[in-house]
Specification:
The protein is mainly beta. The protein contains 1 helix and 11 strands. Strands 1, 2, 3, 4, 5, 6, 7, 8, 9, 10 and 11 form an 11-stranded mixed sheet that branches. InterPro entries: LpqE-like, Lxx211020-like, PCuAC_sf.
Amino acid sequence: MVLLLAAAPSWSAAAQEARGSAIEIERAWTRATGPTAQTAVAYVAVRNRGAAPDRLVSASSPEARAVEMHETTMEGGVMRMRPVEGGIVVPPGGLVRLEPDGGGVHLMLVGPTRAFARGERVPLTLTFERAGGVQVEMTVEAAGARRPAAEGGHGHGEHTPGSRPRG
């Protein structure tokens, strides 16, 4: 996922709703990987502009064997990663950030089908309990990026153009 930042739309203008629902994906990104990587990490921000909660129940990508929701925690000085059971609730009027510094919740792309190079885009479908499937394209940032470059990251990459309704 590399275009000029000036050509990239703003996050708010790019966000779209899924199937008339109130769910918006404001950003989606991943990091560059090597050709032998067994996993890649994906990050998104999900906004619920509706009056009812929704739940991210699964995710998938044609560029990975599986996509899992994970939470990283510290237990006794040891970092542990576990699958998130039951999905991720997005409260009404709320914003849930799956990001490196967002409480350790992220998406794990297991078995990438290829290396991801900075500047490319990788498709991802997020499936919600109420909203259904929301397709996004993740921008591939530099291998060590802590956030998308357009948000003051390490100066690499660009914004993701937002979500596109499916169906």
